[in-house]
Amino acid sequence: MGLSQDEIFEKVQDALIDALGADDDEVNRGATLVGDLGAESIDFLDIVFKLEKSFDININREELAPEDILTNGDYVKDGVVTANGMAELKRRMPWADMGEFEQNPRVQDFGNLLTVGDLCNYVGSKIGGES
Amino acid sequence: MRWFWVDRFTEFVSGSHACGYKNVTLAEEALDEYCPGYPMLPPTLIIEGMAQMGGILVSEHFNFDKHVVLAKIGKAKFHQPARCGDRLNFSVKLDAVQDLGATVTCLSHTGDTLQAEINLMFAFLEEGRFTKGPLFNPGMLRDMLRMMNFFHVAVDLDGNAIPEYTNI
What we know:
The complex is a heterodimer.
Chain A: H1 5-20, H2 41-55, H3 61-64, H4 67-70, E1 76-77, E2 80-81, H5 83-92, H6 99-103, H7 107-110, H8 116-130
Antiparallel strand pairs in A: 1-2
Helix pairs in contact in A: 1-2, 1-8
Chain B: E1 8-13, E2 17-23, H1 29-32, E3 40-41, H2 43-61, E4 67-78, E5 82-83, E6 87-97, E7 101-110, E8 113-125, H3 140-147, H4 150-153, E9 154-155
Parallel strand pairs in B: 1-9
Antiparallel strand pairs in B: 1-2, 2-6, 3-5, 4-8, 6-7, 7-8
């Protein structure tokens, strides 16, 4: 598709403003979807629809919400993601910055991991892979 | 409880789009007290009518096997009120479908004038989540569709009449 990073960000920003009713100054690269922008589970479905339409890509739900990893006894122990689990998460989501989450990888905190920047990286990887 | 906000389907193409209408009449309880002195169909009930039509479009796409519920109302613009004597011509288009939900775009016209435009998102409830078994009592959905002229117009993408669903 040949979009620049700024162009990707603008389109992602538009999708999030539309889906979450957020202001454009709230939707910056560092903003977390859940914590800062107030996204709920149903909003993620809406965001997927909007990104698919905007970028003409197919999004697999597990790529953005790896519930199968976070509920797998091999990857999670006592509500904390194990080393194997972290490796699997990084393999599934190489575009996400997990540095902070890795310090204290509690499953309950995973929902607030995703930032706008991560989403831009994800879209960029999909466009690059499908072009 | 009576909760019908679409009077009739005039067109239905499985997996694509649907058209129909809703007549607005002073006999409806919802009208005369909503805006005293200026009876009009509340916009929320116009959304409900479009949601019923869109929900049927989405649900039929999955052979009425999924538990389809209205999850989110996107942009909803109303260009003019729906007054007594108006016929609201609804048209609903299936935009996108995922394994967990679908989106539709809905328009309402009175004559040639655009009356409202609404984007809706439906979600598919997982079995056992919020409800066990079907969302409608046996036969209830089929009766509702019959009353709305659905089976007289519903076709698949090839123009063939849709199959008789025994699960509704």
